[in-house]
Request: fold
Amino acid sequence: MIYWMDFLPSAVLISIIPGANQLLGLSNAIRSGASWALIGILARLAAFTLLIGIVVLGLGAALAQSPGVLTVIKWGGIAYLAWIGVAALRSKPETASVVEDEEGHTDRWRIPRQEFMVAITNPKALLLFAALLPQFTSGGRDAELRIALLGLAYMGVEAVVGGLYVGAGRILRWRFRSYKGSIARRVDQLSGICILALAGALAVSSV
Reply:
């Protein structure tokens, strides 16, 4: 048995809270357009698929009991978030331009790479799936299948919410095209500060 009425509101609430991936989606939509930002979301979901697979296989609980492994993942994630945050703060106005055409020199393939790496190196995501998903199933026979279904449902919620963030970024991109790089530059600065703050919060957390 799956407790859908309890799970779906929880999934929406968890997904809608701005995190590193959602901020990346918003920023990417402004800088490089909605299409590439949506490709980034697909990379994020690929990372979540791997994490949910780990939970379904029962490895999530084992990793939760392995402080050394979690510490390595944690500090790897912190370092990557810090690198992204500093890069956003140091971005030049011309590289942040919202009027860049589709043949621009921006390495847009960095978008799915960043989305995937931020998601896969976040130990809180793994622990979230390991702790959250089993709470909404009655366990027993076919528990792994039900957890997998819950994982798929969560990714559906994440895709919708991520799309809303990308949609907001697309609106800002088109609304402020005449401002050239100024708006994207400010978004980069805000995103950089928020991502660095998330890296700091992860550093002082007990995970």
